[in-house]
Automatic annotation (TrEMBL):
Key word Cytoplasm present: no
Keywords from the UniProt entry: Iron, Iron-sulfur, Metal-binding, S-adenosyl-L-methionine
Domain Radical SAM core: 78-297
InterPro entries from the UniProt entry: Aldolase_TIM, Radical_SAM_PqqE_MftC-like, rSAM, rSAM_sf
A Pfam family hit: Radical_SAM
Keyword Cell cycle found: no
Name listed for the protein in its UniProt record: MoaA/NifB/PqqE/SkfB family radical SAM enzyme
Lineage: Bacteria, Bacillati, Actinomycetota, Actinomycetes, Streptosporangiales
């Protein structure tokens, strides 16, 4: 297991990495980045000290002075990967300390891999080429191995983003970890503007107080934050108030308004939809799921995304080679099928096929996911 209080104090400050046929320089916890040529990437990979052009570029971009520091300890050069993946999400654990009425995860069991298996998984992600890794759950920060997962992923040169409810952000150990080795960003779900609506939606007394305490601690520490404003029937009258609060805090925010069935196709989340806030989706023209991006669940099962979870690939058994099958799986899952086959309007549909499949399993009305209201209802 990583020595988080020892090894991480001398960890890299810059990452040089291949990225979708190009080469980039990134600084963990800082915005922006640099594109460099393949020749300069090769030069850095073989360098014993920082070339002057690199020292100047880093100083101009981030105000960071490389002179006097060990190049090998300060700059992590990531090798090229033959697999072509650059982004992934990792669900550490489906467990959560809230019981939100809209949650798409359904039954949230506290289950996950042991540390040796998680360590193996993170090396698989590194070998696949994953540069951007999103840590999610459930609530990732209540997972007992969150610090170890975060620490090793950071050590392996991944730019980390976190999806959280913020309830553990004021925990001193977590706060120290995140401030010492900063994530790219943390997106916090906000469930209401008042204690009554917030605790009502999460079905946990004290949830609002935990959120505001964690938010205050993170803001004081200068952590890079975003807010996802969750809008359901419970708090729909507080959207403008939530937006005003986010603006006052100076935190970027987006409203999350379209509720989906559970990952098992369960309908229990659908009544939480605020129909007046249901947003028309942009036409779905394809995505990179399964080709440059993938999702891993708490058991190390890889799928094209959080929604299209079946078929899955057991990474603990097959290793990084198993990911070579994901592209074909993605192509088959994203094809229009079933009740959408032959629809003359499918070219402007805003819902991907895996999500349509879940809506059908949940026997959802078409109005929840199909923007073409003139179509007849599809029977599951």
């Amino acid at each position: 297991m990583n020595n988080l209080e020892g090894d991480m104090t001398t960890m890299h400050k810059l990452i040089v990495s291949p990225f979708l046929g190009e080469y980039v320089v990134l600084r963990p916890g800082s915005p922006g980045g640099l594109k460099i040529s393949e020749g300069k990437y090769r030069e850095l990979a073989e360098a014993a000290s920082s070339p002057s052009w690199f020292t100047d570029a880093v100083s101009a971009s981030w105000g960071y002075d490389l002179s006097g520091s060990s190049f090998a300890e300060t700059v992590l050069i990531r090798p090229e990967s033959p697999y072509g993946y650059v982004r992934a999400t990792y669900e550490l654990n489906l467990g959560c300390n809230y019981e939100c009425e809209h949650c798409y995860l359904g039954l949230k069991k506290f289950e996950g891999l042991s540390w040796p298996e998680r360590e193996k998984l993170l090396y698989i992600l590194r070998d696949a080429g994953v540069l951007w890794l999103q840590l999610t759950g459930g609530e990732p920060m209540i997972d007992k191995l969150f610090p170890e997962v975060y620490g090793l992923a950071y050590e392996l040169g991944m730019m980390l983003t976190i999806l959280s409810n913020g309830s553990r952000l004021a925990n001193p150990k977590i706060l120290e970890l995140l401030t010492t080795h900063r994530p790219h960003d943390i997106t916090l779900s906000m469930y209401g503007a008042t204690e009554a609506s917030y605790d009502g939606l999460t079905r946990r007394r004290g949830a609002y107080r935990l959120f505001t305490k964690g938010l205050a601690a993170a803001r004081e520490a200068g952590l890079p934050l975003k807010l996802s404003l969750i809008v359901t029937n419970t708090n729909k009258d507080e959207l403008e108030q939530m937006q005003a609060m986010a603006d006052a805090w100076g935190i970027p925010h987006d409203a999350f308004v379209n509720m989906s069935p559970t990952i098992y196709g369960g309908p229990e989340t659908l009544p939480t939809q605020s129909m007046e806030h249901l947003r028309k989706r942009k036409p779905f023209t394809g995505c990179h799921a399964g080709h440059t991006f993938f999702h891993v669940d708490p058991h190390g099962m890889a799928s094209i995304c959080k929604i299209g979870r079946d078929p899955q690939i057991p990474l603990m058994d097959e290793g990084v080679e198993g990911l070579t099958r994901l592209g074909a799986i993605a192509d088959s899952l994203l094809l229009r099928q079933g009740g959408c086959t032959g629809c003359t309007l499918s070219g402007s549909c805003g819902t991907c096929m895996p999500l349509v499949t879940l809506y059908r399993k949940a026997k959802s009305p078409l109005r929840n996911y199909c923007q073409h209201q003139e179509r007849e209802e599809v029977k599951a």
